[in-house]
Every structure is written in structure tokens, then in C-alpha cells.
Amino acid sequence: MKPNIDYSLYLVTDREVLADRELCAAVEEAIKGGVTAVQLREKCTNSAEFYEIASKVKAITDKHNIPLIINDRLDIALAVNAAGVHLGQQDLPAKLARELIGSDKILGVSAATLQEAKTAAEDGADYIGVGAVFPTLTKQDARAVSLEDLKQIKKSVSIPVVAIGGINENNVEGLKAANIDGIAVISCILGKSDVRAAAELMKKLVQV
Predict the structure, then answer these.
(1) Which of 76, 121, 125, 144 could pair with 109 as two cysteines, CB 3.0-4.6 Å apart?
(2) CATH no. for residue 108?
(3) Measuring CA to CA, how many Å separate 178 from each of 27, 118, 142, 151, 162?
(4) Host domain of residue 79
(5) Is 143 tagged catalytic?
């Protein structure tokens, strides 16, 4: 049965942001601080290493009953029995991914335009990651999405919309007018020396 996910504070991992700190420990601290979903994003690892990391992170997310989403790699998501997979516009087509993972897994799709968002919803996505809503350093090829674009996408699809891209404690308030279902964040939690406190702060800001 497909899990019912709270997307309000969606953590995307990036070990470069963590520097020399340990990923699993940081993820656990973030969850203790209020993170509601975790996406494991590994752009520079081979399949064996990705599988090993995913297995360790899933042990943490399972312990706290938090869904784990795997970025890009449908095979890894299935191998570790993650809650689902998140795909970009250059990855496997969402319609095909849905056929491969079945109806019980979560399928997220990145979108930067209204048409991409509508197509993702039609093709079986459970939620859409929309961005970049602010300038970001963690994704060099990110396309800019205005607040008006975000509002329009939210109004035009019936599935949850999660904003991503450069979101932090100083600008998150500006997204509330779009009535989105959650924010996906990296640096404003994992880039802080106290990950748990950073997560707690973001949790308060999204709940206000």
C-alpha cells in the first residue's frame, strides 16, 4: 500500500554540503528536528556505493518511520525497498517509471514549467518538485521558477507541490502565498553546524 507522505519539510541530501560530517548521523539529527521526508541524492557514486549508502540511510528513516525517496535511480529505490523515487526531466519518463515501480511506490517528478507539471501529474506522479524558486548553489543547472509560476502550477494540478531551490530561513515566508504542500531543502539544514536545531527552525517556519 502506498504510504501517505507529509511533504512539509522534505530533506534532500548532499554530502558535499556536509563536508566531513557523517551522512547517516546528520539525517537522523534532521529527522529528530522535524524533517518529514528524506530524499537520498547521490550524483557522484557508483551503483555499489549508492546501494550501500541507501541501505544505511533507510535503516535510519525506517527507525523513525520517515519515508525515503531515492533520487534518479529507480533500480536503487527498488533494491532497498524505498518508499519511492524522484525523477528529473532528463531521467526515465514518469509513465514508464510508474509501470516499473507499480502503484504502491511514491513517484516524484521535477518540473519548472506548467506544462511539465501537468504532464507529470497525467503520467502518474504522486507529487511534483517545482524549482528553483530561489538561486541555488547545490544544483548548477537549475531553472528559475517565479512565485507566480509556482502559484499557477499549484492551482493547475491536484497532486502535492513541493518547492525547491535555495530555500532557507530568510526567504521561506515568501512562498506561503503559493499555498504549496511543502519545501525541499538542503543547505539550510545540512549546511548548518547544528543540524537538529536548523531543522527545528525550518519546521517552525513552515508551520506558522
Answers:
(1) 125
(2) 3.20.20.70
(3) 28, 17, 20, 5, 10
(4) 9-207
(5) no
Q: Which residue has the cell 519545501?
A: 183
The residue from 58, 73, 105, 139 that is catalytic is 139
Asked whether the bond before 48 is cis by omega within 30 degrees of 0, the reply is: no
Report yes or no on 110 lying in a domain: yes
Closest alpha carbon to 39 in 65, 62, 14, 22: 14
- At 120 the pLDDT is 98
3-class SS of residue 155: helix
Inside any domain, residue 145: yes
Respond yes or no: is residue 41 known to be catalytic.
yes
Residue 54 CA to residue 23 CA, distance in Å, equals: 11
Number of domains in the chain: 1
Catalytic option among 15, 41, 58, 73: 41
The 10 Å CB-count burial string (b at 16+, else e) for 186-208 is bbbbbbbeebbebbbbbbebbee
Catalytic residue among 8, 58, 105, 110: 110
Instruction: Decide: 132 and 113 in contact? Cβ < 8 Å.
Output: no
Q: What does the block give as the cell for 71?
A: 533520487
Active site residue 192: no
